[in-house]
Amino acid sequence: MAFTRNVRKIAKSLTGAIGVAKLVINFNGTGTPAIRDALNVSTLTDNGTGDYRLNYTANFANVNYALSHGQKNETTGRTFVTAGGVNQSDPATSNSEMMLYNEGSTAYINPQFVYATGHGDLA
Hints:
- By secondary structure, the chain is mainly beta.
- It has one helix spanning about 1-15; strands spanning about 25-30, 35-40, 40-50, 50-55, 65-70, 80-85, 95-100, 105-110, 115-120.
- The longest helix has 12 residues, at about 1-15.
- It is elongated and about 45 Å long.
C-alpha cells in the first residue's frame, strides 16, 4: 500500500512537467503477461491473445493524452500495435487498451517484449 501511495505522489509531482512521460511500461506478453518495469501502471489485464489493458495508478486529467506503443518479437515478422480497436474501449483517464497484430500470419500475437509510454497532464 505504501508503494502505491509513493507512486501516486511521484506521478502527481510530475503533473506540470511538460515533455516528461507520465506512464511507462515494459512487459512480457507471452504466457501470463508480466510487468517487467513500470511507472504509473498499477496492473496489466490480459483480454485475450494480443489484447491488453493498462490500468493507471494516477489518472490522466482527460482523455487527450498521447500514447506510444512498441514491441519486439523474435519469432514473427512485422507487427502492428494499435491503441483501441474493434473490440476495445476508447481510452479513459484511468486505463487504455492495446492490440498487437502480426501482418505475416494475419493473427493477433503475444510478443515477448511490449512497451508503452504516455504523455499528458495527470489529474
